[in-house]
Every structure is written in C-alpha cells, then in structure tokens.
Amino acid sequence: MKDWYPATLVARSLAADGLTDLTLDVSLTPVAHAHQRPGQYAWVRLPGYEEGVFAIASPPGIPGRWDLLVKEGSPLPEALVQLPLGARMEVTRPEGRGFPLDQVKGRDLLLFATGSGISAIRSVIESLRRDRDAYGRVTLYFGVRTPSAFAYARDFQSWEQARIRVVATVSQPGASGWQGLTGYVQAHLAEEALAPGTAAFLCGQKDMAQKVIETLLARGLSAADIHQNV
C-alpha cells in the first residue's frame, strides 16, 4: 500500500509537442528531501483518475521541488496539464534505484533517451553539471519522431556549454526542413569512440534500449556498466 503526500502545482510550461513540464512543491511534506538519485520516479494521483508514474526530471538536492515531464494522451496526464497553478494533487515518496552517478566518477558517460524518456536523463544531466569536472566525456544521444518533439531543446546550448555533447536525431522528419541527423539513436552510436570503463545510462523506448545495449556489449562494454532506471 502506497503512502500519499500533498503536492502543489507551482509552474507549468510547454516542453515539446504533446509534452508539458510541471513543477510541484512538496516542501512542507515528509518527501521534501526524499529524492536521492537521478532517474527515480514517483506515483501521482488525482481524485477520479487512475494513478500514474512519472520520472522526476529535476536533479536531487533541490529540497521540496520536483519537475515532472507529462506526456499527453491518457486521462491522468490530460487532467494534470489542465490544472490551474496552485492546484493540489498527491504523490508518493520517490521510488526506484535511479542511476548510479556517484559510481561512475572519472569515467566517460553515454546517455541515451527517446521521447519522454529524456525526463530521467535530464535529472542526470543537471546533476552532472554541478560537478562536471568529476567526469570524463559525456555524450547524450536523444531521439524523437519529429523535430518539434525534443523536450528541453531550450537547454541544449547550456548542456553543450557544460561539455555535454548532444547528438539529436529525428526518425520521421517528413517535410519539416530538419537539417540535423535522421534515423534512430542506435544508428549513430557507431561513430562514438568508446574509452575503457565507459558507462551508459538509458531511458526510453524498449526497442531502442535493447538495440543500444546489444551494440554496446558488442563493442566491449561490460553489462555491469550499462544501466536503466527500472
């Protein structure tokens, strides 16, 4: 049985087509300091809706504030994005093992995300930026279907300035005029030179994760150095 705590919606912004970034205030609850690792998730509920689970997109260490990336298209997310600021909902304590960022210091790091899976990886990136010199090269591989589906695209420049290379790819550019990379995330991995001890964090579509893991293993990464937030 889950324990539930009140959360207040304090900010909302459009993150990409069909994706909304919500900021919750949990500062006056027992879960204010409970977010311990990037990649953890929490359950959310509203009266009249089936509860749902969302990765916490903000980094640990910001007491009382959680960012959630909400994907529209099902009843609870649709209701959440329509709430007025100041509205209340209920959340659980963060769950999941998250990503072991503290265990990969001094090493190169590959980050992989598709679609709304960037939420958990954003938590990693913002954590990395606080102690960037403690890590080697960091590359984010981020794949979406259309150019307008990149959540947090506004942050790409600041991530690059923090020496986090962003490899953005679109699988269905159509007639959008997209001039960047096309195809699936795993198709661009072959271009990466992998140093000994490289670690990988993945979040997103199951097929992407499976193919990326197969490629990384074939290129010599240890299974123990490949992590998903499940």
From TrEMBL:
GO MF annotations, alphabetized: 2 iron, 2 sulfur cluster binding; flavin adenine dinucleotide binding; oxidoreductase activity
Gene Ontology biological process: pyrimidine nucleotide biosynthetic process
Residue span(s) of domain FAD-binding FR-type: 2-101
Gene3D superfamilies, A to Z: Nucleotide-binding domain of ferredoxin-NADP reductase (FNR) module, Translation factors
InterPro entries: Cyt_c3_hydrogenase_gsu (IPR012165), FAD-bd_FR_type (IPR017927), FNR_nucleotide-bd (IPR039261), OxRdtase_FAD/NAD-bd (IPR001433), Riboflavin_synthase-like_b-brl (IPR017938)
Pfam families membership: NAD_binding_1
Superkingdom of origin: Bacteria
Protein name (database record): Oxidoreductase, NAD-binding protein
